[in-house]
Design brief:
alpha+beta, four-stranded mixed β-sheet, three-stranded mixed β-sheet, 11 helices, 15 strands, binds zinc ion
Length: about 375
């Protein structure tokens, strides 16, 4: 990851207003409204926003100055700071800033956003590797369909709030000052409901338990989180929160995972290691139940690895796969038949190896 000061193009001693100016410049240059469908600009926009998010927060900036990215790593350990992965999150975090800067993408008052929800989903190893669809059951506040989220009973209408005349704000005197506050009668909605919707009692949202289909992409790993935008709780006059699906992946004793690479150990007899030959290995094909044979050259050593390029874990959201690394575990027989022992002794003689002599019937040589 690039140094955050470098991302914003400022000195480490930059003041808060220098940072804001630098971010303003970059945000304007790479703003998605000015660069539609430009992935590079979008990444630059996110990078600058992430950098500004950290450096504009005194506490996070201090930790970053002292410990670098380690100091600001999120609890999930994934990215620096909380890390914006989504443009809309940037607008909701810096909405006010963009409001001034760009003539109101977020149009003045920030819209309320519903709570985020979390569900946990268990996956088998094969499901994580190859992707799957899972059903998750969530109980959440959703926009009331009966009243179309207006809160007014069907056939009736919400009326303009008489206290604030629909402005949502009221102005009153406090000492010498005129203070503007949220209208207490309509709580800022600007509307009053005379006949509340019987389904949601005028709240505009109501709890519902739904079963959602979650598409799990191929290549996900244990502990990763999928984000379903707008599938969290709905709020009156706002946007819904997000649903976070936390993935728990079962292990598979045949495969050890290292990022996008997969490691398997394959037992090979010392004879085959010495002479070469074919060995059968497990593969990720056929829902992780596949197998194939690989050719060993004579003289293979314990711990030797054979790399099968592009046969590892699929890259999430990208083409291609990691590698499959096959490691040889050379096995020495624990017991020998008399004939095997005879041959081995012959081999020892040939190699000039001074081996332990054969024991007599009572465990002692004569
Ligand atoms: Zn309703
Ligand atoms: Zn009002």
């Amino acid at each position: 990851m690039r140094d955050l000061y470098e991302v914003l193009g400022v000195e480490r001693s930059a003041s808060a207003s220098d940072l804001k100016k630098a971010y303003y410049k970059l945000a304007k240059q790479y703003h998605p409204d000015h660069n539609p469908d430009d992935k590079v600009a979008e990444d630059k926009f996110k990078e600058a926003s992430n950098a500004y998010q950290v450096l504009s927060d005194d506490d996070q900036r201090q930790r970053y100055d002292r410990f670098g990215f380690d100091g600001i790593r999120g609890a999930n350990g994934s990215t620096g700071a909380s890390g914006f992965s989504n443009i809309e999150d940037i607008f909701s975090a810096f909405g006010d800033l963009f409001g001034d800067f760009f003539g109101g993408r977020s149009a003045g008052r920030r819209q309320p956003r519903g709570a985020d929800l979390r569900v946990d989903v268990g996956l088998t190893f094969a499901e994580a590797v190859w992707g799957t669809t899972k059903e998750v059951k969530v109980t959440r506040e959703i926009a009331c369909a009966a009243c179309n989220a207006t809160g007014a009973a069907p056939g009736s209408k919400a009326e303009k709030c008489s206290t604030c005349q629909g402005r949502g704000q009221v102005v009153h005197a406090q000492g010498f000052f005129m203070v503007q506050t949220t209208c207490p009668a309509c709580r800022g909605a600007g509307k009053q409901i005379k006949e509340p919707c019987p389904e949601c009692r005028g709240r505009t949202t109501r709890p519902e338990t739904t079963t959602l289909q979650v598409t799990v992409p191929a290549g996900v790993d244990d502990g990763q989180t999928l984000r379903l935008a707008g599938k969290g709780e709905a709020v009156p006059n706002g946007t819904a929160g997000h649903l976070y699906v936390v993935l728990h992946v079962q292990g598979d004793e045949r495969f050890r995972r290292d990022g996008e690479d997969i490691l398997t150990e394959v037992p090979v007899s010392f004879v085959k290691a010495a002479l070469g030959g074919e060995v059968e290995i497990y593969t990720l094909d056929d829902e992780c139940k596949g197998s194939t044979t690989i050719e060993l050259k004579p003289g293979a050593q314990p711990g030797d690895t054979i790399v099968r390029r592009g046969q590892g874990i699929p890259r999430v959201g990208h083409a291609g796969r990691g590698d499959h690394v096959v490691q040889l575990v050379v096995e020495i027989p624990k017991k020998l038949t008399p004939r095997q022992e005879e041959l081995m002794r012959e081999l020892a003689t040939e190699l000039g190896e001074n081996v332990r002599e054969k024991r007599g019937l009572f465990g002692r040589k004569k």
